[in-house]
Specification:
Layout (H helix, E strand, L loop, with lengths): L1 H10 L6 H12 L5 E5 L8 H6 L3 H10 L4 H7 L6 E5 L2 E2 L3 H11 L7 H6 L11 H6 L4 E10 H15 L6 E8 L1 H4 L9 H6 L9
Parallel strand pairs: 1-2, 2-4, 3-4, 4-5
Helix pairs in contact: 6-9
């Protein structure tokens, strides 16, 4: 019945394991002086990145020292000796959310759209349009650090970074626990029956 189908959907939900979160926190805590962290969303949004850090006492301590709300200005200022950008994100599934923020705001050379920035809780960009992108192009390496990712989502983010920053694939690293697409996308998972997907209105005839 309908209740059984709802239970199927709940049971198939893929959680990020606590060990994945601890690994993410350890990697961020182990950043070197030549690396600078950046997260797309403001900390006031209480987004996924911030929630990952709140799960452990050590994570909370590390998060306080990151000052992610000041990252955009620090990047634009171009601190000496920094050659690696660390992009922090809780996970990368389709990659659409991070790519949209980068392409339509952070890496955009046109004036920002306030409605888009505020709706998505993105950081304001000081200076002239394109200043942030220009400084990001000085980095030799980019590491996209997440708790978990799918290869398809990671590839989409990697391609955008290479295209916008003018760097090769070898200069972009995506780390975290790699997930199977079939565990992450409702239409692909085999852990939910066809009938259960139909019951919640999944459009099987849509083009992907």
């Amino acid at each position: 019945g309908e209740a059984e189908m709802v239970l199927q959907v709940i049971a198939a939900h893929r959680r990020i394991a606590s060990s994945d979160v601890e690994t993410f926190i350890d990697r961020v805590g182990g950043m070197r002086p030549n690396e600078i962290p950046f997260a797309a969303k403001r900390t006031a949004d209480m987004g996924g990145v911030q929630r990952l850090f709140t799960l452990t006492a050590r994570g909370q301590e590390i998060f306080r020292g990151l000052d992610l709300d000041g990252a955009v200005q620090r990047i634009i200022d171009g601190p000496a000796g920094v050659d690696t950008l660390i992009v922090l994100t809780e996970n990368i599934l389709s990659g659409n959310q991070l790519c949209r923020a980068l392409e339509q705001h952070y890496f955009c050379e046109r004036p920002p759209k306030p409605a888009f920035v505020n709706r998505n809780q993105l950081h304001d960009l000081p200076g002239e349009p394109g200043d942030f992108l220009e400084q990001c192009r000085t980095f030799n390496q980019v590491v996209v650090r997440s708790a978990a990712y799918t290869e398809g989502g990671a590839e989409k983010v990697r391609e955008l970074l290479c295209a916008k920053l003018g760097i090769d694939r070898g200069s972009v690293t995506v780390d975290g626990v790699r997930l199977d697409d079939s565990d992450c996308f409702f239409g692909l998972t085999s852990r939910i029956s066809h009938d259960a997907k139909s019951a919640v209105g999944y459009p099987f005839n849509r083009s992907c």
